[in-house]
Amino acid sequence: MKFENIIKNISRIAAALILYFLCAGFYLGQKGFVMQPDGNIVLVKEANAAVDINTMAEPVDKNIALSLPDGPILGNANAPITVYEFSSLNCSHCSTFHLSILPLLKKEFVDTGNVKFIFTNFPLDRKAMKAAMLTECVPESNYGNFITTLFKKQREWMLSRNPEQVLIRYAMLNGLTESQAKNCLTNDALAKDLLEIRQQGLDRLNIKGTPAFLVVQNGQREMLYGAPDYNTFKAYLQSKIIH
Questions:
Q1: What one-character-per-residue DSSP string does 182-238 give?
Q2: pLDDT at residue 54 in the model
Q3: Which CATH architecture has domain 42-242?
Q4: Which of 176, 79, 62, 170 shows the shortest CA–CA distance to 118?
Q5: Taking the C-alpha atoms of 164, 166, 169 and 171 in order, what is their torsion angle to the nearest 10 degrees?
Q6: Running along the chain, 243 residues long, what does each successive block of 10 average in pLDDT?
Q7: CA 239, CA 243: separation in Å to the nearest integer?
Q8: Which of 88, 76, 101 is nearest to 130 (CA)?
């Protein structure tokens, strides 16, 4: 084959690949997803930077029907303010919040009995979905520790050639047998429940990225979108307690 023909064939293949990715990107965009440079498919506007406290809270109609998890709870079950933390276990912003910001908020607001947090799985892709399923299967006494482990070890299991195997190993360190973990990952009913909560977040709470927070107080609801820093979140919660 002549050199010119080889170049032409390479050019055709390159053009076809470019067209494919353009079409795929358009399709995913229409469906509310985006393909990242590393090939991962995630929700559009995965997570925003910290936003101004005056514009971050958006009211949610109290008449909108919501079916949200009631636990496990971080804090006093009778705390007057409930914060639902919508997180994807493969989201770096969620990891930063959970590992660096939540402990400070816990000391300031949870340990004082004013606020309780409820972790709410909002998986962004298949890997995060598998991790989310396992959080629902570990013993409740290990629930918080398991989530913390998944965030701390996020890069390890996300970059693994066999993330499911790594996740099973973590689950076994948190109260499950290997067979229990494998059965959990094939539990269609559990997967359906998680996806229903996720879809509810999309359709009724307009969640398009993680983390996101639903704050409930005296029947009133507000959404906080994005990843606020500690001082921003602290100021917001203080304003809720004062009022």
A1: HHHTT-HHHHHHHHHHHHHHHHHH---SSSEEEEEETTEEEEEES---HHHHHHHHH
A2: 42
A3: 3-Layer(aba) Sandwich (3.40)
A4: 79
A5: -60
A6: 53 48 41 43 41 64 89 95 97 95 97 97 95 98 97 96 97 98 97 94 93 94 91 93 73
A7: 6
A8: 88
